[in-house]
Amino acid sequence: MPIASVAAKLGIPETALELYGRDKAKLSLDYLAEINQRPAGKLILVTAISPTPAGEGKTTTTIGLGDALNLIGKRAVICLREPSMGPVFGQKGGATGGGHAQVIPMEDINLHFTGDFAAIGQAHNLLAAMIDNHLQQGNELDLDARRITWRRVMDMNDRALREMVVGLGGPANGVPRSEGFDIVVASEVMAILCLAGDLADLKQRLGKILVGYRRDDTPVTADDLKAAGAMAALLKHAIKPNLVQTLAGNPALVHGGPFANIAHGCNSLLATRAGLALGNYVVTEAGFGADLGAEKFIDIKCRKSGLAPAAVVVVATLRALKFHGGVALADVNQPNPAALEAGLKNLERHVANLTGPFGLPCVVAINHFTHDTEAELSLVQNHLTALGVKAVMAHHWGIGAEGARLLAEEVVRLADQPAKPQRFLYPDDMALLDKIRAIATSIYGAADVTADAKVLARLAKYEQQGYRALPICMAKTQMSFSTDPKRRGAPSGHHVVIREVHLKAGAEFIVVVCGDILTMPGLPKSPAAERIDIAPDGRISGLF
User: Is 304 a catalytic residue?
Assistant: First the structure.
């Protein structure tokens, strides 16, 4: 459908649209400010078990649920993150759903879209260029070239750029120093754009970015370099949410895309608030498993914005549960009740985390595969019923909205119950190390956290500088509750080793790096790029 027709379903006037062709548009900031005065709809969070190579289908379920809510007469808006081209060309492929539960135009959304990620990368790298220029032009701020914390970014997987030396070739080429690249979705600029309340808030947050330290160990910020204004100018259009549609013609706001195993893994606050103002229900997702995405959604995004989920959907597949139960990937389609029961421990912990510490009503969506058996589905349903949680089989991939009708009805039942007070895992005034420990022990099932003297000293310094009240953003493998991606199921009693901590003063959280986590991924042996192609008529294939 023409995007103006999709907008009309929500009562959005054409004057509020900034068109990007026939089927994509941005919403103007003036219109967002106007509708934010309206009563808010109910927020539905979609999360999942710990990811596996067998697949779970969180984005597909988010889209299918949104379509199903509209099918049963609810005015629903879907809010998603934008795909990063690194994973699109790497191992993951496209990230716009699948089967009959997709957002379109799929090719555009996966490749460049409306240029948001390019603008974020340019704003980030402008600050990097201004840092090196400052060193070259006399270094009035006495910035220590050995202690610069701001790296460059690009939206592509390229392991060769992780570590390098810049400024070689003589004085005209700058000051030699160690440097490296991260992926755009790991950029603090991305995190800031997704947490900013408006353009003024965006600019203020950009100015607070920590870029490094002087020789006397005092911090240097983007404001010290007078970079925030130009950075915000580059993001003038990127901050506006993007409106697209599902295959069923329902509205979807696709905006922002911080990684959940590095950053907070949620779409933009502006898009979520717009959806809540325009619809009775908003269906959004948080990246990877509930231990990463949902925890950060609540403890970072909700804490900072005042949002609160009315209900949570935890997505699982029988295939993935059997993988967590120890079955090899090649055998996950075979019936195996014993492995399924063992793998249920992973799902059980995610559900317990959401219903326990966070006190949220929860339903489990079993994303259907053709090899699933009624006996194994009954096993899952009976197990969860004993825990007081319902499991619903969903067929949205195969047949679209009708396949998620039962899920939509259960979500409405949960969301329409009287709201309970919002719960967070830790209070603002708790010590930073204790916040980290609370996440590790309460959510990951760890015995404790381990950190060396350097990390402890850095945390103490952040508290002395006035950052004690900031929330924690854990950076760890998404594949396990532990920091070992090979530990399936629900390991407990392990120690979470803190490797590094980083202050993100603009995003207003502390990143805690645990285990071997990369901020610049590499391509796999057979990257998805090998299978992506374009025909003479312009049709792109291989994005799925």
Answer: no
